[in-house]
């Protein structure tokens, strides 16, 4: 009887999980396998893929070192700048804001996602172009200031575009904070600054790590912001992939870069999870 019951439960569980497993296998595992196969092939004379077994594409990765360098430098910097800006905002929303207006303020954080990133990035192109902020700076004596098509413009676009994704995990972590711990700290004579660094910040670090992992992983594959605000001068790995697959039609080399990017993303995620678990101890930490 118990065996039949367990078998029935197992079948029900398998039936419920099967659609998700099939989805992941078809849209995640199979494309990655195809990309892995392409990465050890050769470029056909007319472009595309030609069957072979060679690691020459991986040996040629230094040819795109500028894209890797820009990505591996600007993506972490952008993530940490997002963190510096996002934490005070999330802290105010979760701890200081009146419950009456909290939902409205959180909605305002999400509002930018209602508009296409392409439109918002084009708006920044105008603001950072010759008729925008540089023109205003020229009127007060700062002539020949160029912001657009520089790493600074790309960094600014990154922070603007991904800031809400950093705010929300931190906000959720702070919103779940037990206020009695703050009251206990104050009753024991701790000053607000000491309470923040000894209670609030440690308990919110899982949310911080979640935001950092989420934003960094997305930035590693970013294409639009470097393309528009970098003007073809600040290449990310995503720009290199578009060039190799759609213009150069060098699918094996593009696949090798994509496989390397996936390895980097997994490495970043594992590090973030390890740090988060160390910080949280036995508390449950969800990064994805």
TrEMBL record:
PROSITE patterns: ABC_TM1. One of its GO terms (cellular component) is plasma membrane. It is found in: Cell membrane. The chain crosses the membrane at residues 12-38, 72-94, 103-127, 147-172, 193-220, 251-273. Its main location: membrane. One of its GO terms (biological process) is transmembrane transport. This is ABC transporter permease. It comes from Phyllobacterium zundukense.
